[in-house]
């Protein structure tokens, strides 16, 4: 590089020297970014996500127009539960490479999580144009349309997904969720049951049925569905929390407390579980423990703002 700079000082009007300097700088930038990208990939495989994120951020400083770097930053920020940061990274990746389906779907998922539903719908629609044979994209689109109460369009999207994947239980589960939201309970029941006929061990179908039976105040049926879901996926913290709620409604308070404790062992940052536990403890006249549960709920809200 020094030789090029010296030559340019001797003959500053020489375009070929200037071009050589630019090419050398570009090559150096790309090689440096590549090193950080490789480091980030290795650290990510080792599940050292914070360090991996740092490496990709260094890569971005060197090569800010590389879409894959921004996409990897988005992926890691999402793993680290930093959705705003993740969405910003995917937005930049989309600007640099709008034809990447994975980027568009992640944009949609994060936007929907952050209740930016217009952006989510735009991302899913773009993804569907890029990959029109992907049933999962139409399911995402349908669920987002339903948030705008555009139910007829949502059902059209589900029908498109069903035609693409007629044996995919997730299509029917998502359709059942919309029926349930619209209080079309008989249709929801038929749809969930068909999903289970297709896939008898589908956790989401049992969770959907549990929610449906709870809305219908058929609590014993709801409990049986949630218990089956828990057997199929014992690591899902949502399910024992729902079991606790159902047991509370059935006036089985001690069992409800056991279920809530199990939910908190799986995920201790569930403010709603502490609140419901406080209600149950209050009914049992265990005021000191109820107070502690409510205080834990407040602490959980501070630790994870925005949660329900």
Summarize the structure.
The chain has 308 residues and is an all-alpha fold. The chain has a domain of 75 residues: Tetratricopeptide repeat domain (Serine Threonine Protein Phosphatase 5, Tetratricopeptide repeat). It is built from 17 helices and no strands.
Q: Can you tell me about this structure?
A:
With 308 residues, the protein is mainly α. The protein has a domain at 234-308: Tetratricopeptide repeat domain (Serine Threonine Protein Phosphatase 5, Tetratricopeptide repeat), CATH 1.25.40. The chain is built from 17 helices and no strands. It has helices at 2-10, 15-45, 49-62, 67-79, 83-96, 101-113, 117-130, 135-147, 151-164, 169-181, 185-198, 203-215, 219-232, 238-249, 253-266, 271-283, 287-303. Helix 7 (117-130) packs antiparallel against helix 8 and helix 16 runs antiparallel to helix 17 (287-303). The longest helix has 31 residues, at 15-45. The chain is globular, with a radius of gyration of 26 Å. The mean pLDDT is 89.
Quote the CATH topology of one domain: Serine Threonine Protein Phosphatase 5, Tetratricopeptide repeat
Q: Spans with pLDDT under 50 lasting ≥5 residues?
A: none
Secondary-structure content class:
mainly alpha
Helix count, DSSP H or I runs of 4 or more residues: 17
Which superfamily, in CATH terms, is the homologous superfamily of one domain?
Tetratricopeptide repeat domain
Give the N-to-C terminal Cα separation: 58 Å
Main beta sheet? none
Percentage of residues in DSSP E strands: under 5%
Indicate the radius of gyration in whole angstroms. Answer: 26 Å
Shape: globular
| Total number of strands | 0
In round numbers, the mean pLDDT is: 89
CATH architecture of one domain: Alpha Horseshoe
- What string gives the helices and strands in order? HHHHHHHHHHHHHHHHH
**Which CATH C-level class of one domain is it?**
Mainly Alpha
Question: What's the helical proportion of residues?
Answer: over 70%
């Amino acid at each position: 590089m020094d030789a090029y700079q010296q030559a340019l000082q001797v003959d500053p009007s020489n375009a070929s020297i200037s071009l050589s300097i630019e090419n050398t700088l570009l090559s150096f930038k790309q090689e440096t970014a590549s090193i950080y990208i490789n480091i980030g990939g290795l650290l990510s495989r080792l599940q050292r996500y914070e360090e991996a994120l740092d490496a990709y951020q260094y890569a971005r400083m060197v090569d800010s127009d590389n879409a894959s770097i921004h996409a990897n930053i988005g992926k890691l920020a999402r793993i680290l539960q930093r959705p705003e940061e993740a969405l910003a990274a995917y937005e930049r990746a989309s600007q640099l490479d709008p034809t990447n389906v994975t980027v568009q779907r992640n944009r949609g998922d994060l936007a929907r999580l952050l209740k930016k539903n217009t952006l989510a719908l735009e991302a899913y629609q773009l993804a569907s144009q890029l990959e029109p044979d992907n049933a999962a994209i139409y399911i995402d689109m349908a669920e987002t349309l339903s948030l705008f109460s555009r139910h007829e369009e949502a059902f059209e999207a589900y029908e498109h997904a069903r035609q693409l994947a007629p044996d995919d239980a997730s299509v029917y589960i998502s359709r059942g969720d919309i029926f349930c939201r619209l209080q079309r309970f008989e249709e929801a029941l038929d749809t969930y049951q068909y999903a289970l006929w297709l896939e008898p061990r589908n956790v989401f179908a049992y969770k959907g049925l549990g929610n449906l039976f709870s809305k219908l105040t058929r609590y014993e049926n709801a409990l049986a569905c949630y218990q089956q879901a828990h057997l199929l996926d014992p690591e899902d913290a949502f399910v024992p929390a729902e079991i606790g709620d159902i047991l509370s409604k059935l006036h089985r308070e001690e069992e409800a407390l056991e279920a809530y404790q199990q939910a908190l062992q799986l995920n201790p940052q569930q403010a709603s579980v502490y609140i419901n536990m406080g209600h149950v403890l209050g009914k049992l006249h265990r005021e000191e423990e109820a107070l502690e549960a409510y205080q834990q709920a407040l602490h959980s809200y501070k630790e994870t703002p925005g949660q329900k």
